[in-house]
């Protein structure tokens, strides 16, 4: 025996229902058409009631002023417990964010594990910071501590007043060294038109960095040319007079004729 089909897409209550007449034949098709409308109305009302319950729960969470929407006695305490837990988590997070006191030892704070502080303020006297280890001249910074346990985790350290970011990880209860992330200010590169390189001698070309480095960077140079002549194999590039603001791109030409290569360079801290 087949069941009536439920129309899940029905979006409104069907208010018109055909009235049976005494002249109607006693046939299943006549009655089934009426019953199908009735059962689909019931299904629509059930869906509507479920949506109203969901709305009531949401209003309860948001402390709605709509006093007409109430929860069943067994549902309210459950929602209250959830919101209380969320409030405690938010309060803890706000406490971490608002606590701007400078800590004494960064590693000691991290050793507390998952139950310790998450965001801490570090100063010039805070132990075990990148500043204390001579990696930066900036004395202050903010550390974000992420520990899955007392033996595993990572510290992200942001210096105050620059783009420098350092990180240190702990694995198998052993802390590694501080490492510095690389940014655009740590690496610069470019191409240079070196023009003619005189035969049998060296020729110098001055290169100025687009942005000065805080310290003298490591510099690499190379030569480029579209020529297929073996003569260009007798050119040797190297670096001279490196500084924070630039360097000398020096090319030695061991051939007997003048050559004009192109150059490329990369400088990084």
Q: What would you note in describing this structure?
A:
The chain is an alpha+beta fold and 269 residues long. The chain folds into three domains: 25-98; 99-180, no CATH class; 187-268, Immunoglobulin-like (Sandwich). The protein contains three helices and twelve strands; from the N terminus they run αααββββββββββββ. Strand 10 and strand 11 (246-253) form a beta hairpin.
Keywords:
269 residues; alpha+beta; Immunoglobulin-like; 3 domains; three-stranded antiparallel beta sheet; 3 helices; 23% helix; 27% strand
Query: Radius of gyration over alpha carbons?
Result: 38 Å
The arrangement of helices and strands along the chain is HHHEEEEEEEEEEEE
The total tally of domains equals: 3
Distance between the termini: 81 Å
- Separate helix tally: 3
* β-strand number: 12
What fraction strand?
25-35%
Approximate shape: elongated
Judged by helices, strands and strand pairing, the structural class is: alpha+beta
Low-confidence stretches: none
- Mean pLDDT, nearest integer? 82
Largest sheet: 6 strands, antiparallel
Task: Give the fraction of residues assigned to helices.
Answer: 10-25%
Topology at a glance:
Blueprint: H1 28-61, H2 76-98, H3 106-110, E1 119-122, E2 141-147, E3 153-159, E4 165-171, E5 174-175, E6 179-180, E7 187-193, E8 201-208, E9 218-224, E10 235-240, E11 246-253, E12 262-268
Antiparallel strand pairs: 1-2, 2-3, 3-4, 4-5, 4-6, 7-12, 8-11, 9-12, 10-11
Brief overview:
The chain is an alpha+beta fold and 269 residues long. It has helices at 28-61, 76-98, 106-110, and strands at 119-122, 141-147, 153-159, 165-171, 174-175, 179-180, 187-193, 201-208, 218-224, 235-240, 246-253, 262-268.
């Amino acid at each position: 025996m087949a069941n009536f089909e439920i129309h899940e897409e029905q979006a409104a209550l069907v208010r018109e229902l055909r009235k049976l007449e005494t002249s109607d034949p006693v046939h299943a098709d006549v009655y089934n058409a009426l019953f199908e409308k009735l059962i689909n109305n019931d299904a629509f009302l059930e869906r509507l009631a479920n949506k109203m319950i969901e709305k009531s729960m949401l209003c309860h969470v948001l402390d709605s002023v709509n006093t007409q929407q109430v929860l069943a006695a067994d549902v309210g305490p459950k929602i209250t417990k959830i919101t209380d837990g969320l409030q405690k988590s938010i309060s803890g997070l706000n406490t971490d964010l608002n606590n701007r006191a400078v800590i004494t030892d960064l590693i000691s704070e991290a050793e507390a594990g998952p139950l310790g502080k998450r965001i801490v303020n570090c100063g010039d006297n805070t132990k075990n910071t990148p500043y204390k280890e001579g990696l930066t001249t900036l004395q202050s910074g903010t550390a974000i501590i992420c520990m899955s346990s007392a033996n595993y985790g990572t510290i992200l350290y942001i210096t105050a007043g620059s783009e420098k970011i350092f990180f240190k990880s702990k694995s198998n209860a052993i802390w590694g060294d501080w490492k510095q992330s690389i940014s655009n200010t740590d690496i610069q590169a470019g191409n240079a038109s070196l023009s003619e390189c005189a035969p049998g001698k060296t020729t110098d070309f001055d290169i100025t960095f687009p942005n000065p480095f805080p310290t003298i960077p490591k510099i690499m140079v190379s030569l480029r040319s579209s020529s297929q002549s073996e003569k260009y194999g007798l050119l040797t590039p190297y670096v001279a007079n490196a500084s924070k603001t630039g360097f000398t791109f020096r090319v030695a030409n061991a051939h007997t004729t003048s050559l004009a290569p192109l150059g490329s360079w990369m400088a990084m801290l």
